[in-house]
């Protein structure tokens, strides 16, 4: 049976969940809601009421920076509190990323973060996909893009001091990054970076052809 022949949609939708009570358990840098709910069961009827904590994060945007002409990839390196117990330490190698603020479009966020974390203005963004990083307890949805740019000589230190950002932008040979990805190197161990880099592996030939066609027409 081919994928087209399969029905991938779950049996139930949002209407099969009954939120009995919702309370704000914490409202600080992050938000946490405490829910009392029940939901439909596959075998029929409803579940008993249960309590669940929900980490309320909203939407985020991530951007992979790629230079198809010189075969370079730029990634950020910064401290992450969630990685305190990570064996290599809490400084992580990631794609450019940031949260969506009220009234912003996804592409506006992508361009803002590229300016803040890499000092770049990029005209064209290639949409990769969106996904839920941790649906078991978080409402966040991540939207991924790839931006093409000349990455030679752009390494430096970036970030907003008011937000306690201390970001090192690194430019690495694409082959080195792909080798680290394929070997499971601990340097690249977050979902947004892994998904974006795997997408680039599948699409870099097409992106290179597009850049060559544009150059030939100029």
UniProtKB/TrEMBL annotation:
<protein>
    <recommendedName>
        <fullName>ADP-ribose pyrophosphatase</fullName>
        <ecNumber>3.6.1.13</ecNumber>
    </recommendedName>
</protein>
<keyword id="KW-0479">Metal-binding</keyword>
<dbReference type="InterPro" id="IPR020084">
    <property type="entry name" value="NUDIX_hydrolase_CS"/>
</dbReference>
<dbReference type="InterPro" id="IPR015797">
    <property type="entry name" value="NUDIX_hydrolase-like_dom_sf"/>
</dbReference>
<dbReference type="InterPro" id="IPR020476">
    <property type="entry name" value="Nudix_hydrolase"/>
</dbReference>
<dbReference type="Pfam" id="PF00293">
    <property type="entry name" value="NUDIX"/>
</dbReference>
<dbReference type="InterPro" id="IPR004385">
    <property type="entry name" value="NDP_pyrophosphatase"/>
</dbReference>
<comment type="function">
    <text>Acts on ADP-mannose and ADP-glucose as well as ADP-ribose. Prevents glycogen biosynthesis. The reaction catalyzed by this enzyme is a limiting step of the gluconeogenic process.</text>
</comment>
<keyword id="KW-0378">Hydrolase</keyword>
<dbReference type="InterPro" id="IPR000086">
    <property type="entry name" value="NUDIX_hydrolase_dom"/>
</dbReference>
<comment type="similarity">
    <text>Belongs to the Nudix hydrolase family. NudF subfamily.</text>
</comment>
<keyword id="KW-0460">Magnesium</keyword>
<feature type="domain" description="Nudix hydrolase">
    <location>
        <begin position="56"/>
        <end position="201"/>
    </location>
</feature>
């Amino acid at each position: 049976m081919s994928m087209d022949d399969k029905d991938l949609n779950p049996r139930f939708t949002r209407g099969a969940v009954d939120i009995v009570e919702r309370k704000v358990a914490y409202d600080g840098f992050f938000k946490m809601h405490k829910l009392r709910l029940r939901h439909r069961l596959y075998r029929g009827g409803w579940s008993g009421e249960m309590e669940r904590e929900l980490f309320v994060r909203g939407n985020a945007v991530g951007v992979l920076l790629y230079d198809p002409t010189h075969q370079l990839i730029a990634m950020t390196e910064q401290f992450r509190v969630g990685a305190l117990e990570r064996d290599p330490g809490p400084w992580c190698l990631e794609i450019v990323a940031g949260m969506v603020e009220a009234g912003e479009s996804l592409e506006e966020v992508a361009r803002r973060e590229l300016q803040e974390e890499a000092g770049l203005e990029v005209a064209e963004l290639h949409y990769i996909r969106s996904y839920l990083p941790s649906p078991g307890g978080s409402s966040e949805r991540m939207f991924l893009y790839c931006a093409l740019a000349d990455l030679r000589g752009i390494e430096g230190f970036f970030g907003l001091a008011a937000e306690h950002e201390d970001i090192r932008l690194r430019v690495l040979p694409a082959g080195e990054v792909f080798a680290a990805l394929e070997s499971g190197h601990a340097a690249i161990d977050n979902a947004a970076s892994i998904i974006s880099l795997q997408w680039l592996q599948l699409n870099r030939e097409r992106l290179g052809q597009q850049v060559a066609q544009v150059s030939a027409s100029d």
